[in-house]
Amino acid sequence: MSRDWLEKLPFALWAYRTSFRTSTGATPYSLVYGMEVGLPIEIEMGSLRVALEEQIPKADWAQARFDQLNLLDERRLRAADSVRAYLRNMAHAFKKRVKP
Asked: What InterPro entries does UniProt report for this protein, alphabetically (predicted)?
């Protein structure tokens, strides 16, 4: 039994919050903050996304971020619809296996 779980907890939470969920069709992070997370390795090593964001003027970046936040409610509604469809499919698959 490992006793250093407290040290590993932030990493586990990070992985949970940034991994794609089939049921919602999004990551929990994107549903809260309205954008996908920038992984630390992307910032450290550099990636195309980080390089492109650095070239955008601050006013344009702020406007793009504002637009993303305006669409956040729509993304959350789509995620809720996706969850309902996922649950319907799971119930249908379960009911097919049940014998009367």
From this structure: RNaseH_sf
